[in-house]
Amino acid sequence: MSYETITAEANAQGHKGVTLLTINRPQALNALNSKVLEELIDAFAAYQADGSQLCAILTGSGDKAFAAGADIKEMSEKAAADFFLDDFFSPWTAEIVKKTRKPWIAAVNGFALGGGCELAMMADFIIASEKAKFGQPEIKLGVAPGMGGSQRLTRAIGKSKSMEMCLTGRMMAAEEAERSNLVARVVPHEELLAETLKTAATIAAMPPMAVIANKEMVNSAFEMTLDQGLIVERRIFQILTASEDKAEGMAAFIEKREGQWKGR
Ligand code: CO8
Asked: pTM value?
């Protein structure tokens, strides 16, 4: 499948099971317009449907930006009624976050601002280059986050820092983002893609049902009470014990060999 504003590569750079998605509007710092959204929805659906792929990476093209936000030029032409009636920004969570059961990593290579920061936070985790910069500068445009920033940033880094960032619009550098638990890891800029591919390949080599189950369990921690989450965890664990890959995984450990996964 070829796209206008993104690229998609299965088994990226020879990494089996790893799909690499790249937002490709470097001249606009990878700003997220309707076409990018439409194409990302399609690419994530294709990734989800492809049984040979088990971990995806989303990054930005060029050296400067992951995504510098929703496309301000496109939004400046819309009236309030358009935003409201189209439920603008709703498909990001509904079509990408909710429908992608397999994991994906945001490899943040530069500016992740506004919708760009919000998109990175939709990923299962973020690996950032030393040059990454995160921010919710919407307040400077007279608006506020609209793709989950006020909610996901607050859950990730806590009220005080999130409030400060949303109210001042300041950018957070990679080192502070790691210290604040916004990102899993910071790596040298030139090594970002190689490191993220390596991490994704590690995940893609795991038993597929266990990968999906682990993602679902961790996400449950954000959706329900501790008691409910613990029940979900136990039930999913119990279901996994019936899988062929559980029998294989435990046998492989005891026999001191690598597991051969069936994905069932
Ligand atoms: N949308 C559209 N185009 C953009 C965007 C964007 N978000 N960000 C950068 N660009 C374009 C610039 O217009 C410029 O294009 P051109 O060469 O045609 O003038 C090109 O990318 C390069 O940008 P700069 O020349 O500005 O590059 P600098 O290195 O000088 O600055 C910055 C980099 C600091 C990242 C700067 O580009 C910037 O501040 N960008 C905007 C960041 C921002 O505010 N993001 C939040 C957007 S709003 C949002 O995501 C949530 C929705 C809010 C609703 C708003 C309703 C009106």
From this structure: 0.97
Q: Which domain holds residue 99?
A: 6-204
Decide: residue 22, CB within 10 A, 0-12 exposed, 13-18 middle, 19+ buried: buried
The pLDDT confidence band at residue 9, using thresholds 50, 70 and 90, is very high
Boundary (domain end) residue, out of 204, 221, 236: 204
Q: Whose CA is closest to atom 37 on ligand 1?
A: 68
Do 196 and 220 reside in the same domain of the chain? Answer: no
Q: Please report which helix (H) or strand (E) contains residue 213, including its range.
A: helix 208-223
> What sign for the dihedral angle of Cα 24, 25, 29, 30?
negative
pLDDT digits (tens, 9 = 90+) for 50-74: 999 999 999 999 999 999 999 999 9
Q: Tell me how far the alpha carbon of residue 91 lies from the centroid of ligand 1, in angstroms.
A: 22
Residue 198 pLDDT: 98
Q: Cβ(32) to ligand 1 under 6 A?
A: no
Within-domain flag for 263: no
Q: Which atom of ligand 1 is nearest to the CA of 115?
A: 50
Residues 194, 70 share a domain: yes
